[in-house]
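Quick one, probably user error.
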């Protein structure tokens, strides 16, 4: 007696409906599963021969049936993992780098040499995160930023122990300026960043000065 195992179950013997044709099987598999999982859902033609044969074949049927069910369930329930947009990651990380640089630039005589070192470490960390997020985007601009960032870190490491905070900040200014400029140029080119003026423009025109009346 011949039986057939399909993705939906076991068909009957010789008195049941005819086994599905190759075209019907292919059409059913195409509707249920993508191409990479279709080989799991195959029609198996088996012949029962005695009690031992039935037990052996039954085990194979259960194994293949479970594989087929898992494959079909995977086809129905799997969903594509959203891919992160590299441009969004680039712009987000370069903005974070800008914030770290702005914090460094805001330091003054009220801070300490330790504060300078801590802020420089934050800039270094923000740059590394930006570099990782950038991937293959704007490679020449990333390289320019990296050169400036490395220069700043070297200058911070070389601050003389006798320097005051004002002296240290003054010596670091030539390294901070190119880093800030390079970061802004990359942000403008890749993310449409706009530099904000430090002094906002007046919203209303000043009142005109009246000339003294002639006597």
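Nope, works fine. Designed sequence:
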């Amino acid at each position: 007696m011949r039986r057939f195992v399909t993705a939906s179950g076991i068909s009957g013997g010789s008195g049941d409906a005819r086994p599905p044709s190759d075209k019907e099987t292919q059409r059913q598999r195409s509707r249920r599963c993508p191409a990479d999982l279709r080989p799991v859902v195959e029609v198996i033609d088996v012949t029962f021969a005695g009690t031992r044969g039935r037990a052996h074949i039954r085990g194979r049927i259960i194994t293949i049936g479970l594989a087929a069910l898992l494959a079909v369930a995977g086809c129905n329930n799997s969903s594509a993992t959203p891919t992160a947009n590299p441009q969004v990651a680039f712009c987000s990380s370069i903005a974070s780098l800008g914030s770290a640089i702005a914090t460094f630039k805001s330091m003054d005589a009220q801070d300490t040499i330790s504060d300078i070192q801590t802020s420089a470490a934050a800039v270094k960390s923000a740059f590394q995160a930006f570099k990782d997020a950038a991937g293959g985007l704007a490679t020449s601009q990333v390289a320019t930023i990296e050169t400036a960032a490395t220069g700043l870190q070297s200058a911070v490491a070389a601050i003389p122990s006798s320097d005051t905070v004002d002296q240290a900040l003054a010596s670091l200014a030539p390294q901070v300026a190119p880093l800030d400029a390079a970061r802004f140029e990359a942000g403008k080119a890749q993310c449409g960043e706009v530099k904000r003026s430090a002094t906002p423009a007046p919203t209303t025109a000043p009142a005109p000065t009246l000339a003294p009346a002639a006597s």
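Residues 2-77 form one domain.
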